[in-house]
Design goal:
With about 425 residues, the protein is of the alpha/beta class. The chain has 15 helices and 13 strands.
């Protein structure tokens, strides 16, 4: 719902004395062109969107109960305070600051290689760059620039075609089903490819994962085709409970792995590419060529180390609690008489999952904001129109973090009831 009031809550309709009379018509040179009218309309829409976004952020920030308090919604001062408070526990602050990747950045790289059980790791300012470089290196080594991945994978949906536009790579899709490809689909795929990229979990399909046995079989099928395997592990940290395996065993299935520092771990930015020492050495060269050799990166490196210390050990509890929350959501929707709903996947594979309801996204987001403003409880955040799925439905992404551990199933069911009341 668009806001129609100004900052002091009054209507923005013009007063009679502000309205133009017939004699005040503009001359032709003063009249607004269709292009200017469109630009003005776009500006007004943008202002409304900014106001709505600020309202949502303020409502979520002020809410007393949330499932996760996302670091990206903290103020600049709060982020700086948290970084300063945690930095001393993860490194020696009397050492010199990093310059072109030494110091605390090199320390972080060693930490990642140790956590994943790889020979080496390299820090990158973005995951997009890390994966561009990894896939480009593998294309050169295999002699095949074709990458097999899911059409919902991050490079296909969120990177503006960068694999082809920047790195000259070609992508193919062994499956379009909303899940990772099966081993048989890899074996039967009619086109050759040099690299199989697996996003674990597949975020845009609902943070879904295969079973451990299925993952092993898919990797084996790729090996049968002489392809290398790269894992998009932006959210790999939270996969271990589902697979029942430690991170090094998961990473060992692949030839290279990318991990993110700002998603699950709550860092400022940055990523790492991990794998064989020779690959990482080559990746450092391409990182420089792609503009990723930054002068100093200690804030991002420190935030990543803090996340590894503070958030990584908590992830199994978040994953377990997500199952409690998901089950209570389903019970709450049923009790509230929701005409249709879906919690996907059920149970969740990680601490993140989707919820679908048969209402417009704006209606659902408005109800979520009102609930936060009126009750101090923020159960849902922003909702999105469904690009796929039943017509007239919308979905939201759920994340259970540290704050969500305090919720009982009854708390969730009560919050669902209060939310549904605001849809009537």
């Amino acid at each position: 719902m668009a806001d129609t009031a100004d900052t002091d809550g009054q209507s923005q309709s013009a007063a009679p004395e502000d309205q133009a009379s017939p004699g005040d018509q503009a001359s032709p040179e003063d009249q607004t062109s269709p292009e200017d009218q469109e630009e003005q309309g776009n500006q007004e829409e943008g202002d409304q969107e900014d106001a709505q976004r600020l309202r949502r952020i303020n409502a979520w920030a002020a809410a007393e109960r949330v499932l996760i308090r996302a670091p990206m919604n903290l103020s600049l001062g709060e982020r700086l305070t948290a970084l300063a408070a945690g930095a001393g526990a993860v490194t020696d602050l009397d050492r010199p600051a990093d310059i072109y990747g030494d110091g605390v950045v090199a320390e972080l790289e060693e930490r990642i290689a140790g956590l994943l059980g790889t020979e080496a790791a390299a820090f990158f300012p973005t995951g997009t760059m890390a994966q561009q470089v990894a896939l480009r290196c593998w294309a050169g080594r295999t002699g095949n620039p074709t990458v097999a991945l899911h059409p919902l994978a991050h490079p296909e949906v969120h990177e503006r075609g960068a694999l082809g536009a920047v790195s000259g790579l070609r992508t193919v899709h062994p499956t379009s089903a909303p899940r990772l490809p099966t081993a048989q689909e890899i074996r039967d795929f009619e086109e050759p490819f040099g690299t199989l990229m697996l996003e674990l979990p597949l975020r845009d399909a609902g943070f879904v994962l295969p079973t451990w046995e299925e993952l092993q079989d898919v990797v084996a099928a790729a090996r049968e085709r002489d392809a290398v395997v790269h894992i998009d592990g932006a959210r790999l940290w939270e996969c271990a409970p589902h697979f029942g395996r430690e991170l090094p065993e998961i990473a060992a299935l692949a030839d290279s792995v990318y991990v993110s520092f700002y998603k699950t771990l709550g860092g400022l930015s940055g990523a790492a590419l991990a794998g064989p020492a020779s690959l990482i050495e080559e990746a450092r060269t391409w990182r420089h060529r792609y503009g990723g050799q930054l002068f100093q990166q200690f804030p991002a490196a420190l935030a990543a180390l803090i996340g590894l210390d503070q958030e990584l050990p908590q992830l199994p509890s978040y994953v377990a609690q997500a199952k409690v929350v998901a089950g209570a959501l389903a019970e709450g929707f049923s009790a509230a008489g929701a005409p249709w709903f879906r919690v996907h996947p059920e149970p969740p594979h990680t601490h993140q999952f989707q919820v679908w309801l048969p209402y417009g996204a704006d209606v659902l987001t408005e109800a979520a904001v009102r609930q936060a403003e009126e009750t101090g409880v923020s159960l849902f955040r922003k909702w999105y129109p469904a690009a796929a799925g039943p017509p007239g439905t919308s979905f939201t992404e759920m994340t259970v973090g540290r704050e969500g551990l305090q919720w009982t199933a009854d708390d969730v069911r009560d919050a669902v009831r209060e939310f549904m009341e605001r849809l009537v």
